[in-house]
Amino acid sequence: MLDAAAEGRHALLVAATGAGKTLAGFLPSLNDLIVPPSDGLHTLYISPLKALATDVRRNLLIPIAEMDLPIRVEARTGDTPSDRKARQRVKPPHILLTTPESLSLLLSHEDSAYMFATLKRVIVDEVHAFANGKRGDLLSLSLARLQTLAPKLQRVALSATVADPDDYRAWLAPYGDMDQVRLVEGETAAEPDLTILLPEGRVPWAGHSGHHAIPQLIDEIGRNKITLIFCNTRFLAEFIFQKLWDANEPKFPIGIHHGSLSVEARRKVEGAMAEGKLRALVCTASLDLGVDWGNVDCVIQMGAPKGSSRLLQRIGRSNHRMDEPSKAILVPGNRFEYLEAQAAFDAVTEGVRDGETFRPGSYDVLAQHVMGIACAGPFDESELLAEVQSALPYSGIDAATFARVIAFIATGGYALKAYDRFKKLVKDPDGRWRLSHPQFAAQHRFNAGIIVDAPMLEIRFRNGRKLGKVEEAFAATLSPGNCFTFAGMALEVESIKDLDLIVRAATKPATNIPSYMGARLPLTTHLAERVRQMLTDRPGWARFPDEVREWLEMQAYRSQIPKAGQLLVETFPHDKRHYMVAYPFEGWNAHQSLGMLITRRMESRGLMPMGFVASDYALGVWSLKPIADPRPLFSADILADEFVDWVESSYLLKRAFREVAVISGLVERQHPGKRKTGRQVTFSTDLIYDVLRKYEPDHLLLEAAWADARTRLTDVGRLGDLLGRAADTMLHVDLERVSPLAVPLLVMIGRESVAQGSVDDALLMEAESLAGVAMTP
Amino acid sequence: MTHDFQFGGETFEVAGEAALYWRAQDALLVSDLHLEKASAFALYGQMLPPYDSVSTLQDIAALCSKYSPAKIISLGDNFHDDDGECRLAEDAAALLVDLTRATEWIWITGNHDRAVSGIWGGEALDELTLSGITLRHEALKGDLNPEISGHFHPKFRQVLRGRMVKRRCFVKTPRKMIMPAFGALTGGLDVQDAAILNACDLTHGEIAEALVATQSGYARFALNKTGTFAK
């Protein structure tokens, strides 16, 4: 790192967790600052987590105090008091620790040019965790800005091991020129000690939870000092926690941690962990990153890991001594998940990570950034465009698109020039854009940010104590007297008031657990490919447990095992219905989308579809009439003909639109204590979406929402690839009865809600007749 | 399935999602148009799509070509704010002028609602009684005569088969009818909200129900007493 700094080059430091890379990142800065430092900001540290910024400050202060250096280190996050924030802008510390959002806000102040003029280095921590998302877009724009304010600025990024470090070198470099970024590789950690846990050698047919292994988990907790138990969803975390608690005869102190718990509840659990008061913690992706607890010695993954990079990250949460292996246990929930766990096991053993996809930067983030720049002072359109283009995600933005973004900020960017009188940005006589009124700067700083929560209700006791949040859709299923489990407690609903769900301790057992939308982790293409290969590699089956091997052998005997590159589709009658099961292994999102499209197409062809069910591995459809030839159902034109129609009317695009509407500043964000509630925000953006789609379908924000829906929500790319090859690669097998491979999917029917004919009208009429409101007026 | 229902001794038809057609009076009833809501937000820097008035008025025009009503009665909150009437853009204003010329257009304003000057046509009234049914903006407590009002923007939301269904709805009791908001950008208030039940001003034994329009008619849900919806 010191070499890179001496050369004046940018640098990417790649090292395993626990290798001390954060401190290594600071070494050159401390080296500079040992000579009596001049005033002014020297180094900026950016972390994706507030808690990490605070933790790093503590860790930095120790060596600084030991060496008795006159270096000032301060953190600045959303939690920093406003008087300290104001002072930081006038008299900045030598080292400032912050988040991408807080940095973006700093850059929106008029004095940012003064504050950052002295900046020598910027350190981006955990860059692998967010570079290719919207927060990465925002930070890349901020880095471009900083480079303008301090042209000699050195950029440094710290990353866990990634599949292709060049992706991140390019992301970090000005103009994507990765040769400007020196790659520094840290030591690699010892190979993890990884096992797949099979309770009495059994692998269940269905389920994701792995709860059959609860007795072994209790034993494992007893064997280790501190065990982290990762679950893939918040729902599953609550479920496993409850099961563990029921079986916890040794009375181990066990905690639960997930993203919907209140901040207070999370701090409390984190505190208990830090003090070593817990023996086990059930958690979700909320702990994939974060403050390190050195004393964790075992990591358990419940259900399939969904990706090898994620699994490695989670394994890295245990045992921070580099020379000793981290201990990790995989608990697959069903037979397909066993295959996936085995695939992840192989990938980790071979040290192969999932590839990351980098997509072009989104327009809503660009709009937020440009508005922030305008708040800092007047700007020249072509100069700012050149700066924006130096950020890799926005290198493809042309002058015309940039003009649309500016028009969007100024007047909404509508074809109908209705708002020219209300312009937010106006052009000065010298051709520079500036804010028309300072109030818009305050409005911007109030609403800026990248995270947009789904509409949530706050769960609290009557005395005001907050427990966390549930989604509106779940809350709508509750009435006073209903019980549900949350934060490991059984709660009874007292009342629902506006956006508060008032609860008390339940006196009867709770059967409900809240679920959260979009909580499903996508199966990476890398793991999916490995699972497909494992199926075709028949000699390799020998290492599988008997049950799994017999299952596959029976499949080969009764139906077929697809060869490499083949898409297996089975049709068979069962229980007076006709089933079709396809095995694309493209992940739940893609299968879910495909299921909706195929049932639509079946409807129009008179096949009378009745429902479908999707997993990460397969898609099953059932109908009243048999499907003689599945090929026409899988043709690629389904994407052109039905897909656009379906996505536009689905909630997917409305959700994406809501997010871009908030991030771009079109609508104001919900704030605690303000009358505008999350519910109203969703509602009004749905209406705005409908009006915009009808009258200006080419609007910038609809384009941005589409881009989001494409990359994140529907895995359209995977769907397109799948359909593109389906015609040539389909292996159709017509069977007399259900195949072994189809069983894990079919047993899901009835457990998953299958909204067939999911037209609101039909649901309303059905609900009315169920309700039996047969009153005559 | 039918779109018709009886109220106050008269027959009404659910027209589209949020309007009523009163056959005996040959009148189309709409409420809470909130015209120029988008431009009201644009004044404060939120540049919402400037198409809400056109959208709302086109929807009314579509109902007009279906029912050819002699009267159109708008039950208040006609414009989103006082200046909305003056901000109406050319195309929306032309559409409104066409409608107010082709029909007898009545703007109900009520005591607390914004005034309508009628620069685009139509007659403004505090309230109006036709065939014994009073049309006013906000339900009046203690009035025992049949009444149709707006103001609350009732909206039905319920999770049905794991799917959240949200739709504007009417509220109907033996004496009171509350219309949903018709405007393109008007949000809604949960029909179960205490404010709405309170406005129903129920006496003992009376039942309030939500009427949710569908393609083939409407679905009914009890808001108190029996039914899945009662809480």
Which key features would you list for this structure?
heterodimer; A: 777 residues; alpha/beta; seven-stranded parallel β-sheet; six-stranded parallel β-sheet; B: 231 residues; seven-stranded mixed β-sheet; 17 strands; 30% strand; globular; disordered C terminus
Structure characterization notes:
The complex is a heterodimer of chains A (777) and B (231). With 777 residues, chain A is α/β, with parallel strands linked by helices. Helices cover 41% and strands 16% of the residues of chain A. Chain A has a seven-stranded parallel sheet with strand order 3-4-2-5-6-1-7, with helices on both faces. Chain A has a six-stranded parallel sheet with strand order 8-13-12-9-11-10, with helices on both faces. In chain A, α7 links the parallel β5 and β6. The radius of gyration of chain A is 27 Å and the shape is globular. The C terminus of chain A is likely disordered. Chain B is α/β, with parallel strands linked by helices. Chain B is built from five helices and 17 strands. In chain B, the strands form three sheets. Chain B has a seven-stranded mixed sheet, with helices on one face. In chain B, strands 8-9-10-14-13-16-17 form a seven-stranded mixed sheet, with no helix packed on it. The two termini of chain B are 28 Å apart. Chains A and B meet through α17, α24 and α28 of A and β1, α2, β11, β12 and β17 of B.
What's the structural blueprint in terms of helices and strands?
The complex is a heterodimer of chains A (777) and B (231).
Chain A: H1 2-7, E1 10-14, H2 21-34, E2 43-46, H3 50-66, E3 73-76, H4 82-90, E4 95-98, H5 100-106, H6 112-116, E5 121-124, H7 134-149, E6 154-159, H8 165-172, E7 181-185, E8 193-196, H9 214-223, E9 227-230, H10 234-246, E10 254-257, H11 263-274, E11 280-283, E12 298-302, H12 308-315, E13 327-331, H13 335-350, H14 363-376, H15 381-389, H16 399-411, E14 425-427, E15 433-435, H17 439-447, E16 456-461, E17 466-471, H18 472-475, E18 483-486, E19 489-497, E20 500-505, H19 525-536, H20 546-558, E21 567-574, E22 577-582, H21 588-604, E23 609-614, E24 619-623, H22 637-649, H23 651-663, H24 678-695, H25 700-713, H26 716-729, E25 730-734, H27 743-746, H28 760-771
Helix pairs in contact in A: 5-7, 12-13, 13-19, 14-16, 14-17, 14-23, 21-22, 23-24, 23-25
Chain B: E1 4-7, E2 10-15, E3 19-22, E4 27-30, H1 37-42, H2 52-67, E5 71-74, H3 84-87, H4 90-102, E6 104-108, E7 123-125, E8 128-130, E9 133-135, E10 147-149, E11 154-160, E12 163-168, E13 170-172, E14 176-178, E15 189-190, H5 194-200, E16 209-213, E17 218-222
Parallel strand pairs in B: 4-5, 5-6, 6-7, 9-10, 10-14, 11-15
Antiparallel strand pairs in B: 1-2, 2-3, 3-4, 8-9, 11-12, 13-14, 13-16, 16-17
